[in-house]
Amino acid sequence: MAENQRQQLRHIKRFNNKKFKELTAKYQRRVAPSEYETTMRDPNNVLEIDNLHTYFYTDVGTVNAVSGVTIDIPQGKTVGIVGESGCGKSVTSLSILRLLQEPQGQITAGQLRFNPSSGGTKALDLVKLPPAKMDAIRGGDITMIFQEPMTTLNPVFTIGRQLDEVLKYHNINKLSSRQVAARSVEMLETVGIANARGVYKMYPHELSGGMRQRVVIAMALMCGPKLIIADEPTTALDVTIQAQILDLMRLLKEKISASIMLITHDLGVVAEIADFVAVMYAGRIVEQGTTRDIFHNPAHPYTIGLMKSRPSNVDGERLYAIPGNLPNPIGLPDYCFFRGRCNSAVRACETGAVCGTDSICGTNAVCGTSAGGSAGAYPPMFALSDTHKSACWRHIGEGAAL
Amino acid sequence: MSGNVLEVKDLKKYFPVRKGMLSRTVTYARAVDGVSFSIAEGQTFGLVGESGCGKTTVGRTLLRLIAPTGGQSLICGSDVFALGPEELRRMRPQMQLIFQDPYSSLDPRMTIGEIIGEAPREHGIVPKADLRAYILDIMKRCELRAYHFDRYPHEFSGGQRQRVCIARALALRPKLVVADEPVSALDVSVQAQIINLMRDLQQERGLAYLFISHDLSVVEYISDYVAVMYLGVIVEFAPKKEFFNNPAHPYTQALLSAVPSPNPDNRTRRIILKGDIPSPVKPPSGCKFHTRCWRCTDICKTDIPIYEEARPGHYVACHHRLAV
Lengths: 402, 324
Known about the structure:
The structure holds 2 protein chains of 2 kinds. Chain A is an alpha/beta fold. Chain A is 34% helix and 20% strand. Helix content of chain B is 30%, strand content 26%. In chain B, helix 3 crosses helix 4, helix 3 (112-123) packs parallel to helix 5 (158-170) and helix 5 packs parallel to helix 6.
């Protein structure tokens, strides 16, 4: 067994090395603007994530962290991405900012179309964008708020210096140092810090968790971003402080008209501030729609399970628990990833829709063979309404496959 | 009252704050400043509060994992703080603890069987010959498979590790289990599995739980009685129904309103508290909550509110307790 295993690991290593060379060469060559300039499908979107695939080539095999995620983020709206740990929600956000651990982590397919301005300029495909151009966008047009404010801020520099740095790096308007400092203080005031001038001179350890998260938000707002990615912004905070920060984010969204992509595992937080929600499971989106769609008519068995397993005041009743665990992200099956844990699997989950015998065939565009594969293939997205989509074979015949 | 598994009376724990070259104690951080409550057999007592309010210190002090500054902790009738080392050791199986983080509370070099079996072997809970069968039985009860016996913690997911922690605590046949944020590090779906398991075991064995958590929805689900702590003192205590339907202390009301609701149409105006929890080294005068309270008046700044019964079984410490 051991020899066999070693051989397998060697094989993986050879495969990975070949991949790294190939992909590094691809990223290092000069890229002509024509390659990364695209057009948006809908000019009102700030970002269109289109069929994004992010893989990690690890020593034990290829991890399909994100496989085929498609989300539109409209101008001025908040899109929530919900999922449990390991579902690929953070990797999606890191892919957008191209902050993946390279060369192991790679975007292998898909487009990230970003609309830098609502005017006539061309949209950019962030996947193909050369590093120098990406640097200008990262922290400028697209910013990020991380989970842990304690580790986001550098302990050896003052808050003011760290805020100024952002604007100095992206200095578009050629401000003087004094103007930059004034802008930093102004931003600290915007995020509700009372003693802004004092905090400007403080070090991170002098602030509480909630205050630090406010500073991180101020930092994200410094350059007037188009899109803010908030990765679990309130997870490390207490409920009362979480309420403060969510309130602040809601207020700021109205003020600055930026779009927010909110990544969280907490369904309550999403219901609180998101306009659209996407539920992720094992690297794929299983259901997406408006917040009302998802919370009032959850369609995918996984979403329904998540909602039911939230403890609420159901007296004496046992909590619903989704059986089993997340699938191993290495070597995921080609059928629905949730099949093993699902309590409402239908025949199509095992066999796929069979052409000619299923009643839906002919009456609807959907059919197992045309909708992406053979028996029991991974279900396509079914459109349940204009906004609501779910990737589950249960909806076969209910809506059009996308 | 007899039949109480745990009785805590006026528990105090001050941590010294040392400064200067000689590390002289300049002042004390009053982490727990006079806390009293009791838990009967088969009941769950939920202890809620924000980080830094002293809820974890209460759990550790009453088990005498850290030395108390004052007060009494009676477990099954014997005063834990007065016991000698040998007596204390004999008491240990009665009181067990489940930690928050299942990743750091298991020894990575021990197999699951060794982790669960170590304490029963040391305390001679079962004869040596029966130990393996006993452990397998406990594992089965906690929904772990027999082949997990020889595995190491790193091979398990977070939920399974928490099952191991629960099995380890139960192997000693305790009367009282202090569960310190047992589900906070877990995903929602796994959280439900662990909560169900804890409830099943409680019904089966008549365990008393001290359930320490910051998550009000979990506490509401599992507890019979709930107490809220703020800066080392209990500010409100009531049976669960009464607590969630008629919260009387302004802090409790703010906590309850801060929980995000899973209904997108129900984005209610919430009570947003200003600022952060003050330092326990220099607690505010009078009512400790007055710096963040929206109903604060002059009396709150000077007089410490009395912790008294506002309704039958419902205790509050507030000068302006509401709607009672």
